[in-house]
Amino acid sequence: MAEVLSFPGLKGGFAVGLSWQHEETQPSQSALRARALDLGRNGRWCVVHESTEGAVQTGFCEAIAGTKPARLKPLAAIVAGQHRQPWMGLFHLRGDVYWYVAVRQGHAVIAGGDRVGTLEEINPIRERHRALGEWTEIEGTLRDLATMARASKGVSVMRDALTGRWKSQAYTMAAVSGVMALIGGGWYWYDQQQEAEREAQRMQQRAIAAARLANEAARQQAAPWVEIAAPKELMLACRRAWDRQALAQGGWTLAGWRCKPATPTALTIETTWKREGGVADTAPGVLTVDGNLATETASAPAAFLPSSREISSSAEAQRAMWTYAQRNGVSLQLTLPPALLPTDGKTPVDPWLAMTADIGFGAPPWLGAGEGIEAVAGVRLTEISYEAANQTWKGTAKLYATRNGCSLRSER
Q1: What per-residue string of b and e applies to 6-19 under the rule 16 or more CB within 10 Å gives b?
Q2: DSSP string, 302-365
């Protein structure tokens, strides 16, 4: 069900929870009204959005009580182009309610990729989408959405497909056309206008087809692991952050620590604190409900360069990863991505896949346990963590490899 979000300092509201579908061309007003009738209550309000790459989409939802469609913009259309595709985002709205958005080819919102609900409702959808290929996954809060919502210029407001401005405009245009048909020579002019519109639609179709082909060609050469820091670089950056990390403050002791790459110039450090004689007023970060734990998120400087494009086959990558683990005496769990869902042949498939690796370092990886991991082609650490309760250090990584039957060019 669609909902409205509002943000301080921004006019109007932002609709989330729409149903989106791809359009080959800009749909006519009559087509939108017909589709709204077919969808029943779930399709009364709608919006037409064209991404910067030429992907045309329509979004529908049922009427939302307490507001008007002209005061709303679709948030999914606004945020779709603000991250490198393909990406999926999970944003905490309130309590146990989240907003999920998924964007792929052409920076278009995919079917089911604009949902509001609990994690139990959203997670099955996310898993189905993960099977389509590799994603950049982003998590955030209402504050992050407020920042992205400021870039709403150029995104159309929503309209009522059945009784809104479109219907009255259609009646007006029909009346004008009738009068013009009665004027001498008017029909010829009208016919020429119609032909010009048809030619414009054909040109738009050709442009969209060309953009789709160009995007698909770029997709085949995409290598997201090149934009991720090499394991050795991340370990060095996390080591510098750990060396500056306090272990206790104001009666609160460090219970957990996580170091993740955020951008080429920054790390995200997530710290969990446990109350050891302190009080809530001195707790760093945000308190949990029971008041005995607190979580804190901060940024730390980094300087990551693009990493190697080289990857190997799935079998070779697994063998190399296990060799590293066995030589260093660390525990390892490798998880293959889910099998691809049947498609109609039109949905592009990445020529590579990404396995998940969970590594039990036992000690800080920069003290020896991580030695040699950079020799595994295609492995990228995505998190280094520490749990004080059992004194364990762990790592999470993505292991990229070529998909069966596919090949990648090796140049950087």
Answers
A1: ebeeeebbbbbbbb
A2: --PPP-----EEHHHHHHHHHHHHHHHT-EEEEEPPPPPPP--S-S---SEEEEEEEEE-SS-G
- When pLDDT is cut at 50, 70 and 90, the band that residue 75 belongs to is very high
Residue 217: its pLDDT value, please? Answer: 45
Paired tokens of 306: 């693009």
217 token code pair: 């060609």
Q: 186-221 and 165-182 are packed helices; what angle lies between their axes, rounded to 10 degrees? A: 140
CA separation for the pair 34, 117 (Å, rounded):
29
Residue 274 CA to residue 192 CA, distance in Å, equals 75
DSSP string computed for 258-299: EEEEEETTEEEEEEEEEESS--GGG--SEE-TTSSEEEEEEE
- Please report, as a single letter, which amino acid is at residue 61: C
pTM of whole model > 0.70? Answer: no
Region at 177 (left for phi over 0; alpha for psi -120 to 50; beta for the rest): alpha
Judged against a pLDDT cut of 60, whether residue 296 lies above it is answered with: yes
Measured distance CA(22)–CA(39) in Å, rounded: 16
Note the Cα 203 to chain centre separation in Å: 31
CA nearest to 220, candidates 31, 87, 349: 349
Count of CA atoms in the C-beta half-sphere (13 A) of 329: 4
d(C-alpha 12, C-alpha 152), whole Å: 11
Q: What is the mean pLDDT of the chain?
A: 84
What tokens appear for 82 in the block?
Answer: 């603000």
